[in-house]
Amino acid sequence: MKLIGLKLKIIAIVVILCSCAPKKSPELEYIPQGARKGVASWYGAEFHGKPTASGEIYNMYDYTCAHREYPFGTKLRVVNLQNGKDVVCTVNDRGPFIPGRDLDLSYASAKKIDLIGPGTAEVLMEPVGRDMSYVRYVKYTPIGGPLTIQVGAFREIENALRLKQALSFKYQNVYINKASVKGQIFYRVRVGKFSNYDDAFNLAKQMGQEGYKVIITGFVGGKDEI
After folding, report:
1. What is the DSSP pairing of strand 174-181 with strand 184-194?
2. Is residue 1 classed exposed, middle or buried when 0-12, 13-18 and 19+ CB atoms within 10 A define those classes?
3. Strand 36-43 to strand 147-154: parallel, antiparallel, or no bridges (unpaired)?
4. CA dist., res. 151 & res. 55, Å (int)
5. HEC states along the chain?
6. Residue 142 in contact with residue 197, Cβ under 8 Å?
């Protein structure tokens, strides 16, 4: 009887200790091929209605996101590793610009996985397809003289600066050319200087496949004029 009583006491102690142990966050049993972990944040009203790096207008209520590398149109399944909730969103922007963060979710995407309150969380990012309508094609129209690639032109300098910052994740010699067109000032975001058309076309084609709206035009300036 004493032995049985001792065993019952041991079982009771184990149960108490287990109940007091900290609960672990839900984790995936495996990481799908091609998926990666990272830290996600979100962006909302401050950028609502402004152009993204892909040229689309940012809508905080759409299921979209910003990433530094994935081509525009990539569909990502994002899993919040703190609670197991997931959302599928489309990459249409570049970012985040804050070190230590890997993904910026739209307000709607962040809300669906309960990220609004915490602000950031470790997530799993899994590519699950691509919307190929984001692919841009460059028309081959040879022109002479030094050349450059124009990626966007804006009336507001803030939009030009944001696109320049986004392009600088991957491309070199990104600059803003200031121009007056019919009495209106435009800030044109451009990349590189090329002495022959084929070099310019090859890079423009690569950028178009990534999802940027590009045109090849005559080189002017070569440094920020803002």
Report:
1. antiparallel
2. exposed
3. unpaired
4. 9
5. CHHHHHHHHHHHHHHHHHHHCCCCCCCCCCCCCCCEEEEEEEECCCCCCCECCCCCECCCCCCEEECCCCCCCEEEEEEECCCCCEEEEEEEECCCCCCCCCEEEEHHHHHHCCCCCCCCEEEEEEEEEECHHHCCCCCCCCCCCCEEEEEEEECCHHHHHHHHHHHCCCCCCEEEEEEEECCEEEEEEEEEEECCHHHHHHHHHHHHHHCCCCEEEECCCCCCCC
6. yes
Query: How many residues make up the chain in this entry?
Result: 226
Sheet of 174-181, strand order: 174-181, 184-194, 147-154, 215-218
Consecutive 10-residue averages of pLDDT for the chain (226 residues): 43 43 48 90 97 97 98 98 97 97 98 97 98 92 88 96 97 96 95 94 97 95 88
Q: What is the pLDDT of residue 94?
A: 98
Can you read off the two tokens belonging to residue 3? 């032995």
Angle (CA) 166-167-173 rounded to 5° is 135
